[in-house]
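Chapter summary example.
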Amino acid sequence: MNQGRKVTAIEVQKKNTQRVSVFLDGEFAFGIHQDVLLQSGIARGDELSEQKIGEILALEEHKRAKEKALRLLSVRSRSIKEMRDRLRTAKFSADVVDGTIAYLQRLALLDDTSFAQSFARNRTQTRPEGAFLLRQELRHKGLSDHDVEKGIDAAFQEQSERQIAYELAAKKKKTLAYLAEEKAKKRLNDFLLRRGFDWDIVNDIMENWEHI
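The structure predicted for these 212 residues follows.
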């Protein structure tokens, strides 16, 4: 039977007092967060089996993944797919990624329906676009059809897609005043189509050129 390795010292790290260095048999073995130290319950003089060491390091990986996820969410909200992709890119194991996603969902910090609605509302306010392009963006973020449609509903709750297109067209038309009318019309037509507005809406705007 293999003998365990003895914890000979646990020292607070100078550069980050939230972390400690664990020494086994007189040599540095690994660094862990203070919370992981408390959770694992190890102390100087304990003998650790390889299995116990593995469990401690797994706790540390979970802790780091949660911290990484919370930092990402402090910048902006994320879809589940976006968060999963970022954690995978950070080289966390599949089990740790799944556990972190579940943890965030329990705390209601990850919710695709809420994310779709807030993202779509924000997009409409900061960079107005049509439902077609907005759907593409939402789907690209890994959202279900149900959540995508919830986002679309939220985006056009206060103003319809047509109203937003007309307002955007009026602003754009002013910037094209220096062009000949036919060229300005083409520029505006192409601009609205690139922004993902429905062709019927764009056609209606172009037919009402004099009134926008």
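To summarize the output: The radius of gyration is 27 Å.
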